[in-house]
C-alpha cells in the first residue's frame, strides 16, 4: 500500500484483493485442511504450489499475514489461534538450551508462565528486568544473552519502555529483540521502525474488536528472522481459525476509529477518577503524572481505552460491593472489544524486580464504545454503594 495514504485509508485496503475473487470486496472464508496438488512433480518439488497444507498457510491466512506485515512495516508475519501462541513460538524460535533471556518484569502474566513453566524445562536462563531500565540494560547482557523481550506499555500499570535505547544496546551485542505490541495493535507504535526484530500482537484485542476472536500474530523484520520464526511456528503446530481470520480482517477496517473513541473516553474517565477520594492513584499513560508519560508522548501516536486505578484500602466485602454494583463494567479477562470491562489485577505480587507493595485493590478498566457520561455515572453510583 502506498505510503502517500494516511493510516485510516490504509486500514480499509490491507489484506484484500477484490480482483482475485471476481470483485468480491472481502476475502471469502476459507475452510480447509487438505490442499490438492495437480501432479506428482508438483507434490515432490512444491514448484507452483503456493499452499501445501492449510495449517501452514491458505489464502485467508495469507491475506491476514500480509496485512499485518504491511501494517507493522515488516518482512512477513505468522498467525495463530491465540495471542499467547506467537509469544511462545517467537521465544522458542530464537532460544536454545543454555541461552539467557532478559524479560521485562511488567509482562502479561501468561508470558511469565511460559517463561517459568515451559522455557525453564529447556535449560534457558530467565532474568527479569525493571521495565524502566532503558540503556542500562547493557549491564545485564551476558555472552549467553540471546533475546531481550519487551512489552510496552506493560500490563496493569502501563510502564512505557525506552525501546530505542534498549534496541541500541541489543544490536551492539548481537541480541535479538522482541516486543509485545498488543497495546498499540500496530497503529499507535511501530516496533520494527525502532529496530525491534519481532513484533507480537494479540489480534483478539483491538484488531478483532468485538470480543469474538481468538487470534495472534508475530511479524519479523527480515527474511532470515522470518524463516527461523516460521519453522518453529510450523513445528509447534500453530495455526489460526478461518472464521477468526475473517473477523479480524473485518475488524481491521474500523480499528483506528474504535481506538480513537476509546482513547478520548478513557482519558475523561481517568481524569474523573483522579478526583475521587476513594482512589489512591490512576495509571494512564496520557496523564502527565504517569512515570513514563514523556516516553509515551515521544514514541507513540496516541492512546487507547486502558487504564488502572488503585482503590483505597478496604475490606474485601466492601470491594466486592463496589465491583458488583457496576452495570456497564462487567468482569472480564480481555480488553479491546466494543464494550467496557473490568479486571481486578490480582497477580501483581508476581513482579520480582520492582516489588508491588501498594495497599488496596488495583483495578484495570477497558473503556469501550459506550457513552462516556453513562460510564462515569455508573462508576459514581458504584462508589456510593462502596461508601454505604
Provide an overview of this structure.
The structure is a single chain. By secondary structure, the chain is of the alpha/beta class. The chain has 2 domains: 7-250, Type I PLP-dependent aspartate aminotransferase-like (Major domain) (Aspartate Aminotransferase, domain 2); 256-387, Aspartate Aminotransferase, domain 1. 35% of the residues lie in helices and 15% in strands. It has 11 helices and 11 strands. The strands form 2 sheets. The protein has a 7-stranded mixed beta sheet, with helices on both faces. The protein has a 4-stranded antiparallel beta sheet with strand order 8-9-11-10, covered by helices on one side. Helix 5 links the parallel strand 2 and strand 3. Helix 1 (7-13) runs antiparallel to helix 8 and helix 4 (85-94) crosses helix 7. The longest helix is centred in the middle third of the chain and has 33 residues, at 242-274. The chain is globular. The mean pLDDT is 94.
Specify the oligomeric state: single chain
Q: What is the average per-residue confidence, as pLDDT, rounded to a whole number?
A: 94
Helix percent band: 25-40%
Give the name of the CATH architecture of the largest domain. Answer: 3-Layer(aba) Sandwich
| Sheet having the most strands | 7 strands, mixed
Strand order of the largest sheet: 1-7-6-5-4-2-3
- The radius of gyration computed from the alpha-carbon positions, rounded to a whole number of angstroms, is 22 Å
**SSE run:** HHHEHEHEEHEEEHHEHEHEEH
Class by alpha and beta content = alpha/beta
CATH fold call of the largest domain: Aspartate Aminotransferase, domain 2
Amino acid at each position: 500500500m502506498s505510503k502517500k495514504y494516511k493510516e485510516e485509508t490504509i486500514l480499509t485496503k490491507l489484506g484484500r484483493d477484490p480482483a482475485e475473487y471476481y470483485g468480491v470486496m472481502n476475502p471469502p472464508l476459507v475452510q480447509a485442511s487438505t490442499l490438492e496438488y495437480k501432479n506428482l512433480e508438483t507434490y515432490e518439488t512444491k514448484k507452483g504450489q503456493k499452499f501445501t497444507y492449510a495449517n501452514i498457510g491458505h489464502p485467508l491466512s495469507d491475506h491476514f499475514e500480509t496485512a499485518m506485515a504491511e501494517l507493522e512495516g515488516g518482512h512477513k508475519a505468522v498467525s495463530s489461534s491465540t495471542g499467547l501462541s506467537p509469544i511462545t513460538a517467537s521465544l522458542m524460535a530464537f532460544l536454545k538450551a543454555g541461552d539467557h533471556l532478559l524479560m521485562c518484569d511488567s509482562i502479561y502474566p501468561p508470558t511469565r508462565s511460559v517463561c517459568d513453566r515451559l522455557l525453564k524445562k529447556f535449560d534457558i536462563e530467565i532474568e527479569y528486568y525493571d521495565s524502566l531500565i532503558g540503556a542500562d540494560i547493557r549491564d545485564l547482557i551476558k555472552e549467553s544473552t540471546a533475546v531481550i523481550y519487551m512489552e510496552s506499555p506493560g500490563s496493569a500499570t502501563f510502564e512505557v519502555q525506552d525501546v530505542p535505547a534498549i534496541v541500541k544496546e541489543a544490536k551492539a551485542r548481537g541480541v535479538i529483540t522482541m516486543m509485545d505490541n498488543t497495546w498499540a495493535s500496530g497503529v499507535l507504535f511501530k516496533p520494527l521502525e525502532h529496530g525491534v526484530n519481532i513484533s507480537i500482537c494479540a489480534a483478539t484485542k483491538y484488531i478483532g474488536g468485538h470480543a469474538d476472536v481468538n487470534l495472534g500474530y508475530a511479524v519479523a523484520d527480515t527474511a532470515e528472522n522470518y524463516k527461523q520464526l516460521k519453522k518453529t511456528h510450523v513445528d509447534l503446530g500453530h495455526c489460526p481459525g478461518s472464521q477468526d481470520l475473517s473477523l479480524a480482517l473485518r475488524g481491521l477496517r474500523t480499528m483506528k476509529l474504535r481506538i480513537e473513541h476509546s482513547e478520548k473516553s478513557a482519558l475523561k474517565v481517568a481524569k474523573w477518577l483522579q478526583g475521587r477520594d476513594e482512589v489512591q492513584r490512576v495509571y494512564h499513560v496520557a496523564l502527565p503524572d504517569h512515570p513514563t508519560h514523556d516516553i509515551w508522548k515521544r514514541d507513540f501516536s496516541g492512546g487507547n481505552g486502558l487504564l488502572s486505578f488503585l482503590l483505597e484500602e478496604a475490606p474485601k466485602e466492601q470491594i466486592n460491593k463496589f465491583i458488583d454494583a457496576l452495570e456497564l463494567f462487567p468482569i472480564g479477562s480481555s480488553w479491546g472489544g466494543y464494550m467496557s470491562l473490568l479486571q481486578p489485577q490480582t497477580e501483581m505480587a508476581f513482579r520480582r524486580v520492582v516489588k508491588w507493595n501498594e495497599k488496596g485493590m488495583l483495578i484495570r478498566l477497558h473503556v469501550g464504545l459506550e457513552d462516556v457520561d453513562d460510564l462515569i455515572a455508573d462508576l459514581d453510583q458504584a462508589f456510593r454503594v462502596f461508601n454505604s
